[in-house]
Design a protein that fits this description.
heterodimer, A: Rossmann fold, 2 domains, 6-stranded mixed beta sheet, 4-stranded antiparallel beta sheet, B: mainly beta, 6-stranded parallel β-barrel, 23 strands, 11% helix
Chain lengths: 245, 305
């Protein structure tokens, strides 16, 4: 479904810096559920933004369903069915949750009425539509509420390739099991591909494949069974904690 | 009425037809239609141009529409309207002015509105300003709004400049009695070479009086905006001023909020922020499939709603 060929990314205006992504080659298949993990600063969010078109790669090519999309804009990629839920979603003064969800669904040919498909996804992320539809997506929402609305907006888009950037960040424990349920259901959706950037063991456990990204490179990619133990045991901090205990 | 008249009335007062309830429609400097009801009397002033609107005490759930339209060039219309709102009345007042200037000389409307709001009364006042026209003549609107709120009275003012007004100088003054509450929401959009100045002054004289001023504006192209919202507390009271502006292109925005406490129990706060549309907001909407232009329009519409 998606192929990244020799993707290197060095932020503009910083040509002497180390690449954020270095010669990434990666293929993502439909009907697969991927979790990208790795240390902070390893390039996970940058990779997601390269796929969505928010960042332009310094070199390399991106193919989606066989089409070269390297030069396509964010809007064009969204129209092809690629979606991205931000790690830190922006806020909008004056735009209500209902309006944001209506914008999310309008390009899918889904119902755009107030009680349409968009708002049902609020329920899925543990927010009562009645309480939230008319709320503005502004500073009055907590970080966790905003994050859940962000997840709902991507779920409602019915994407062929959906990328969630640390969806668990800011989500309370009570809602977390609901979140894992949502992703479990996404796995059953035919013809789509889901990518989640996460550090959470419970989300890693959902993966068909785990991709470990560190220092801007794909360090490992494979079945979670093979990789999970290794990832956890190789963590230096954890070793240190265990030794100190 | 002509098509242009109806278009303007729709823009400034959401009217498709002659409104229900009391109304006064002023066109090109003259009252053209007027209607009073059992509870709301509208009568022309005897000493100067304008009308008195007298709402009987206890009147509830009624509305007054007093739109002004100008479709001629070179007109300088000055009008004084006074609202006497009886004790414990609760009414909606829809004002507004639309100018369609077809020529090359300026057309101007200066509306002076005085509100005397009785004990425990409540008003919601909506005023929209809009300008259009194929000519080069300027469209100028200089509204003055003076409000006196008696004990326990509340007023919500929604004052909007939609677009097309070349120059505006807005003056709003209010004095609040005991337990009175005032909410002013002002939304201005300027573009081209337009200028807008808004000068507000609110005196919180009564104990437990409260005011909230919310100003949201968008300055595009080479337009210029200046805001002077001022709140003074003379008693135990609360006041909050919030100015938010989106600046674009080569525009200029100045916001100078001022709060003055003359009493130790006056709680006054002001906030002012000016900035361009955040890039991440545009990007977020583009990830939903909107073009950059659609994203910008959506953000501005929401902000000015």
């Amino acid at each position: 479904m998606l192929q990244l060929k020799n993707i290197t990314y060095i932020p503009e205006g910083d040509k002497d810096a180390n690449p954020v992504l270095q010669d990434i080659n990666l293929t993502l298949e439909r009907n697969r559920f991927y979790v990208i993990t790795g240390p902070n600063g390893g390039g996970k969010s940058s990779l997601a933004k390269i796929i969505m078109g928010i960042y332009q790669p310094t070199s390399g090519k991106i193919f989606f369903e066989g089409q070269d999309i390297t030069e396509l804009s964010i809007t064009e990629r969204a129209s092809l069915g690629i979606g991205y839920a931000f790690q830190q979603p922006p806020r909008f003064k004056g735009i209500t949750v209902e309006e944001l969800l209506r914008l999310s669904t309008r390009k899918n040919g889904q119902s755009s009425d107030g009680n349409g498909a968009g708002c049902n996804f609020l329920y899925d992320v543990g927010l009562c539509p009645k309480d939230y539809e008319q709320r503005e997506v502004n500073a009055s929402l907590s970080g966790g509420e905003l994050k859940r609305i962000e997840i709902a907006s991507l779920l409602s888009r019915n994407c062929r390739l959906a990328i969630f950037d640390e969806p668990e960040a800011g989500i309370d424990l009570w809602s977390f099991s609901r979140l894992t349920e949502i992703f479990t259901n996404l796995k059953k959706k035919d013809g789509t591909c889901t990518v989640i950037i996460s550090h959470q063991e419970r989300i890693l456990a959902l993966a068909d494949e785990v991709i470990v990204l560190a220092e801007g490179q794909v360090k490992e990619k494979g079945d979670k069974e093979d990789l999970l133990d290794g990832i956890i045991n190789r963590c230096d901090c954890r070793k240190d904690c265990v030794e100190r205990a | 009425m002509e098509r242009t008249d109806l278009d303007l009335l729709f823009k400034i007062a959401d009217l498709h037809e002659i409104p229900q309830g009391a109304y006064n429609i002023r066109k090109n400097g003259e009252g053209v239609k007027r209607h009073s009801t059992a509870n709301i009397e509208i009568k022309p002033k005897e000493d100067k141009p304008g009308i008195d609107i007298i709402v009987k005490p206890g009147t509830r759930g009624e509305s007054v529409h007093i739109p002004v339209i100008i479709t001629a060039e070179g007109l300088n219309d000055l009008v004084y309207n006074t609202f006497y709102i009886g004790d414990y009345a609760d009414v909606l007042i829809v004002a507004g002015c639309g100018i369609h200037n077809p020529g090359s000389t300026k057309s101007q409307h200066d509306g002076v509105h005085n509100f005397i709001i009785g004990k425990g009364a409540h008003i919601r006042y909506v005023e929209k300003h809009y300008g259009e026209g194929e000519g080069t003549g300027e469209r100028i609107l200089n509204p003055q709004t003076n409000i006196e709120l008696a004990e326990g009275a509340t007023a919500e003012l929604e004052m909007v400049q939609i677009r097309g007004v070349d120059s505006t100088k807005r003056e709003t003054k209010a004095v609040l009695g005991k337990g009175a509450h005032l909410l002013i929401t002002e939304r201005l959009l300027t573009h081209g070479q337009q200028t807008a100045e808004s000068d507000m002054s609110v005196d919180l004289e009564g104990e437990d009086s409260t005011v909230q001023i919310i100003s949201r504006s968008v300055a595009q192209e080479k337009s210029k905006q200046i805001f002077y919202p001022r709140v003074a507390g003379f008693n135990k009271c609360r006041g909050h001023v919030q100015c938010d502006a989106i600046i674009m292109d080569q525009a200029t925005v100045r916001a100078i909020p001022e709060i003055t406490a003359h009493h130790a129990d006056a709680q006054l706060v002001h906030e002012a922020a000016i900035g361009r549309i955040a890039g991440e907001q545009i990007i977020k909407l583009m990830t939903l499939g909107l073009s950059a232009k659609e994203a910008e329009e959506t953000i501005l519409q929401g902000f000015m709603k």
